Amino acid sequence: MNMKTQWVYLLPLLPFASAYGQTAGETDKKMNILYIMSDDHSYQTISAYDQRYIQTPNIDRIGKEGAIFTNSFVANSISGPSRACMLTGKHSHKNGFIDNRHTFDGDQQTYPKLLKAAGYQTAVIGKWHLTSDPTGFDYWNVLPGQGDYYNPFFIDNGERKQIEGYVTNITTDLALKWLENGRNQEQPFCLLLHHKAPHRTWMPDTCDLGIFDAITYPLPGNFYDTYEGRPAAAQQEMSIMNDMDLIYDLKMADKENEIHTSTGLESFGRSLYNRMTPAQKEKWDSYYNPIIRDFKERNLSGKELAEWKYQRYMHDYLSVIHSVDRNIGRVLDYLEESGLLENTIIVYTSDQGFYMGEHGWFDKRFMYEESFRTPLLIRMPGGKKGEISELVQNIDYAPTFLELAGVSIPEDIQGESFLPLLKGQKPSAWRSSLYYHFYEYPGEHAVKKHYGVRTDRYKLMHFYDDIDWWELYDMEKDASEMNNLYNHPAYKEIQAELHKEVKRLRIQYNVYEP
Description:
Distance between the termini: 29 Å
Structural class: alpha/beta
Radius of gyration: 23 Å
Helix content: 25-40%
């Protein structure tokens, strides 16, 4: 039986509809969809998941009034490909956008196009990062490329405009403006609100500079990982100690031009400052200049320098998150005040996870847990409240939204609708494993090509191309993925089962290489 057609819940439809304010005579009313996605937001830095680093009350509110997915993952942990998986409901090899060097084929089927054909108004505002222009949207206003934190350019339905201010505030302003005045309020809407933050280079808003500086964050237990038994992990170039640039990443662009770096990013780092207005520069300088002076006086090296870099990274990254959370609060307040809250499903997620010093790293790409796992909080009126532990993936968003809207799910979509989970139901045939595939090598950060399978407890990974290396982890006993158990005698049967499962998934998803 096709899994896309086996979960048919006709009898509960009317009670479910009335739970979010519809009567029996109004069951054709469509629920609005607000999909909020940040870039590189780690689940570790959302307090609904982890209390160690920061409080995010507005993001948490989505989960408190709805559901928190505790086993949410991506199909390819890098920005553009992850976004393509989300839009199409297909793995990277099927949607054609396997890495950031490709161009997304905007002619192909996406869920916004299907929703638009079904009577939804569709819009995308914020970061796009798919090279080609958005298609299938009544309105689009997106950042070119990665976008900038200060005084960014936006492309407004094809017209390039620079807007003064801070990107997270501006993106929110544009979304609220569209919700209030830009749409036909007689139609349901699907709005994709995509924040640039907290993508590298983690430039805080001027009002948030220094808000976490009084906190010294403990190093992750594996910050000084030696990567024993994991040669692909040893060969990456995403080390806080070795690869995080003092000027580009950590804002040590001194006016005396005495600090220099060898990563090739120094000039880009200095140019970011030049985007600011005089008023922005004044606030920026009053905060960073004393830090720069202190850094130069201390003349750090070795582990002292690595740990200083880690603290600066955490302070900047978390300050950027604080701005995201504040702006999400603005959106939630608007929805409540405008009467939209009880007929709008609200999703908060990230395009992938991120390393907060685990294994000594920043960035993403690997199938290791911190970048493979992603936050997912969903508030659905009348839906489940509390935790959802089933394995879900970002290829599932498209079929979920389509089913919610009453739109038939095309057979070529590879994800599965998790709408039954949001209704509090427990589908007996729900998946027991996930497939992952990363393609961008050679490339930035030098993460080897790899694919793998994850079950609720175990993970099998294969690094390939110019390397042939397998890794196996028992996530229950080794959540930090420090001990590669591949070919360990005690895991012989499990290893064989995982090989069968990854082969089965590759056949299911029509993966033909390597």
